[in-house]
Predict the structure.
Amino acid sequence: MSDKLIIAVSKGRIFREAMPLLAELDITPAEDPEETRKLILPTNNPDVELIIVRASDVPTYVEYSAADIGIVGGDVLMEYAGNGVYEPLDLGIARCRMVVAAPKEGRKKFNNRLRVATKYVNTTRDYFAARGRQVEIIKLYGSMELAPVMGLADQIVDLVDTGNTLKANGLETVETICEISSRLIVNKAAMKIKHNAIKTIIEKLARVTGKK
């Protein structure tokens, strides 16, 4: 485990919305990850580094001590099977919804066996099972809205923000599974070894986000 505090985060919306929060803690990356190929970014604080990883890999890096702290979407945590992280704070950023969506026309009835396309296989299975519905789950990694259009699936489970992409592809929300936002997660061993540094970050972020 490095002497430095390592924070794992993914490119994109979460990074963009997390950086102002970290800036309030006087932590700013030396480079923009969108403009560099580097995956380890030093910051203005010599004791803190950022690592840029795939969003779905953030909990893995944190659980296995490659990072001390991670900033990750609640959807990823719902799908993640590990248990080696603490989740001390909801940062309230990168908000969206996880929904079940289907074509506006010709939607299948719920008492039939549905095909559901999603990258959230575990979450989708648990959601439908809890409601006593038997579904066939088809795992996809992107362009989820295309699956019902091309007859691959009857419904999809995916994240939506404005819902404009659903509308543009003739889909509508059938059910909202849950509200999603990004969370701060912490490695369990690091919480003990680097307790003071991590506790300080948690407390400062709690104040910044209004969660005292």
User: Anything to note?
Assistant: The mean pLDDT is 93. Residues 195-208 form the longest helix (14 residues). The chain is about 30% helix and 30% strand.
